[in-house]
Structure formats: structure tokens, C-alpha cells
Amino acid sequence: MGYRSTASLLALMLLGPPAVAAQSAIVDQYRDVADRIIEAALADSTAYERLTELVDRFGHRFSGSVSLERAIDWILEEMRVDGLDNVHGEPVMVPHWVRGRESAELIEPRRRTLPVLGLGGSVGTPPQGVRAQVLVVESFAELRERAAEAPGKIVLFDAPWDGYGPTVQYRTRGADAAAAVGAVASMIRSVTPYSQQTPHTGVMSYGDSVPRIPHAAITPEDASMIHRMQERGGRIVVRLMMEAQTLPDVESRNLVGELLGSTLPNEAVILGGHIDSWDVGQGAMDDAGGVVAAWEAVRLLHDLGLRPRRSIRVVGWTNEENGLAGANAYRDAHLAEIDDIVLAIESDAGVFKPLGFGFGGTPAAYEVVREVGRLLDPIDAGDIRMGGGGADIGPLMRAGVPGMGLTVDGTRYFWYHHTEADTIDKLDPREMAECVAAMAVMAYVIADLPEKLPR
Ligand SMILES: [Zn+2]
């Protein structure tokens, strides 16, 4: 018996007997169709093949890039070929940050080229770079204690991985903290639990109270080494060069395709992920995989001739990574129909072995989605927990729409997240097919239930 079965057993013991009659009715009514969807998804390798073609043909899809727009064009064309309804792009203005060339070099106590990625939104350095002594700190608190040592230096935050949320603060806010004590540039240990000398990029931002200084990520291996050098004593000097700059906003699109409902087409379950990525690797797991899994879930239902009462709408939001412009624009453009968006489901944690969904909504709605989750027990993907959502559906959820994030085995996600190594070979076709099955069953049943999901 695995951990998850033990956990379910424990939940049963804590919650008492499940399934009042009305809720079991969901399982009874939809068991056959759910099994059919799961069987079809697992027998079909189109999701992985399409994802492979998408990322090999277009590469990364960074906001402002031509590759993002060509990838959106291609998906829209393919959705039309699939026979989806209402296939279109919805224009959105997005930020346009460009990395340019960049390099980092350890100069003292010995020379070494440091693999580096500038952080999204950072200013660049002068053309010759910034050459300065390094002050290594482990935390914001240590930086405050050693503030007197910081002026004129490059501050390196060698913050150990403590989960994404706590550790990512050094990426998002590190530059301001370093600038506030007089640093001329800042660097971070890449935000990851595991590294093979791969730097991780990601978004950062500036406040208005301190000068804007360049901010970049080096690898955990190099951050640890430089930290050890400081502990031994002696001068450490690094030269950091970044051409990064922010250009005027450009137009991108949220991509949309639907399976129109049979009797309540104006009501919809939204299913999606973000089509943009960072400007490194292929963004295969973050988040082309989520978009393609959602799209394939709907294509599969279409091909099976399954048309639920309500519509299921695939949305590929643009610009999640460095602005959330797509998510905010989608909410703004659809505010008038917010009551008709029954549920929004996002996949943005990679397409690995699916475990279930995290749900954000009322307890009454949770009871319903938990019942639907039981239909996913055959692939062990029926673990529905309270609490969840996603960055792109966040604006809809704050406007009152129930939301759900696909949960997957995230063991390896942050190894590759925002790196050159986020490529298709890290994903598994069977696991991706299971993600398609989980999303298709959840979306289909919620879209087809006689009663609208409670709010
Ligand atoms: Zn993502």
C-alpha cells in the first residue's frame, strides 16, 4: 500500500462514511463514460507527439518573441483542423524584455567562467560589465547584519532551497534589497533543489525607492563554491556583463478553442495553461505541456463524439511568466460572462504523473468535484484536495469563478524549471496521456452535470 492509499484511508476514517446518495449518483452516472475517456486517452499518443512538434518547431515562446506568435498561429490552425468551435486569438499587449548577450566570470581568487542567466526584467550593465568584489549572504537577515560591507560590491544571495515560495523571494526582490545597502549588482543561487551546473531564470521586479541594479542567477554549485571561498577569507571578484533591456510592449494573444455545449453553450468550463515560456530551453513542461494536454483533452472528447451540456473552452494564456498580462486581459474581456464560467482548470505544474486536483471554491462545490475525482481512481489521479488554482486562473478566481489546478508528481519539476534543460525529453508519453485523461474526465463531467457547480 502506497502513501497515497494510506492517506485516502486516513481521510475516510476522519471524514466518516462518504457519499450521500446524490453524490454517488455522479459516480454511477458517469462511470462508463469516464472509463471510455480514460481508455481512449491512454491509447492515444497524439498529445506527446503534438507537444514534441510544437516545441521542436518553434522552440521557446517568450513574450515579445516571433516564436511565441508563430506557435500560437500553429495551434490555432491545428485546432481548426481538429474541428473545434470558435477557434480564435484574443489580442493582449505584453511586456518585451530582451536578454541580449550576458556573461559572468570569477576573476579572484581564480578565473572561472560562471554559467549565468539574467533575471527577467533586470536592467543591463554598462557594455564592459560590472567588475566588483563579492559579498555572499545566505538571507535578507544576514544582508541587514552585514549592510556596512555591501557598498560598491556585488551581493550574492546563496539562499539554500527551502521550497519554491520561500526561496524565490531572492529572485524577485533580491536586487532591491542589495541596492538598498549600496550594492552595484546582485546575483542569486538558482532557485532549485538540484543542479547540474544549470542556471535558472525567472521574473524579478524593482520598487521605486532604490536604484535599479543588474540581477542574475548563477548555479548552486558556483554559489556554494564562492560562499566557501568567502568563509576561507580573501578577496572575491566577479565581472558580470548583461545587455538586458526592456523594449516597448508588443501585441500577443490568448488562444481559444471550444467544444460547444449541447444545451447550455453559453456556460463553460475553462481548461488551459500558459502558452508563453521563458526564453531558454523549449518550455516543454512550463507550460507547453499544460496547454497541449488541455487542448488534447478537448480534441479527444470531440473525436469520441462526446458533447457535454455546457461548453468546454481551451485557453492558452499569454505572458504568464513575466507579467500575467494574458490572464488579466482574459478576466477583463470576460467579466460580463463571469457567472457563466462554471469552473476554470489550469495545468501549470508540469505534465508528470497526475495525482489529482487542488480545488479553490466553496465546500459545497468541493463535495461535487471530490465525487468526480473518484472517476479518476483507475489511473490513481483522483486525489482532490481543498486549496489550489493557478496563476492564469487567479484573476478569474478572484472574480468568483471556482478554480482548480492539476496536481502532478512534482519531484523533478524544479530541476528543469526555467532552464535550458526544460525540453521534451524530460516528459513521459504515458504520464502525459494520464494528464489528458484526468483533465478530460474532470472537464467533461463538470460541464455535463445537470446542476451547475455551486459557488
Ligand atoms: Zn508556468
For the record, the CATH class of the largest domain is Alpha Beta
Order of helices and strands: HHHHEEEEEHEHHEEHEEEHEHEEHEHEHH
Radius of gyration over C-alpha positions, nearest whole angstrom: 24 Å
Outline the low-pLDDT stretches: 1-13, 16-23
What do these coordinates show?
There is one protein chain. This protein is of the alpha/beta class and 455 residues long. It has two domains: 3-96 and 248-448, Aminopeptidase, CATH 3.40.630; 100-243, Glucose Oxidase, domain 1. It is 37% helix and 24% strand. The chain contains 14 helices and 16 strands. Helix 5 (140-145) links the parallel strand 5 and strand 6 (154-157). Residues 1-13 and 16-23 have low confidence and may be disordered. Residues 274, 286-287, 320, 348 line the site of zinc ion.
Keywords:
Aminopeptidase; elongated; binds zinc ion; Glucose Oxidase, domain 1; eight-stranded mixed sheet; 455 residues; alpha/beta; 37% helix
Record the SSE blueprint.
Blueprint: H1 3-15, H2 21-42, H3 46-58, H4 66-82, E1 85-98, E2 102-108, E3 112-114, E4 116-118, E5 130-137, H5 140-145, E6 154-157, H6 164-167, H7 169-180, E7 185-189, E8 215-218, H8 220-232, E9 237-242, E10 245-259, E11 264-274, H9 284-303, E12 310-317, H10 325-333, E13 341-346, E14 354-360, H11 363-374, E15 383-386, H12 394-398, E16 403-408, H13 413-416, H14 429-448
Helix pairs in contact: 2-11, 2-14, 3-9, 9-14
